């Protein structure tokens, strides 16, 4: 676990490698965030951070969500699956 010298402002972005047709129908919904919302994470904490996402209309893929801080540094989170539809998927950093 990396400790940050200041509070990390993180936006969750899912890196999807889906075909163009599937991408138009694939949606994700954050259970604990929405509309690209931000988290405020205490950078001095060594606790793991996790978030939950629900996917709808996606083909079977494994994706790697990314946390992006206010300086545009990116932190890869644990991989999650885009199926089954409507099931909660948890990713951890």
From TrEMBL:
Signal peptide: 1-24
Taxonomic superkingdom: Eukaryota
Keyword flag Signal: yes
Keyword terms: Signal
Protein name as annotated: Uncharacterized protein
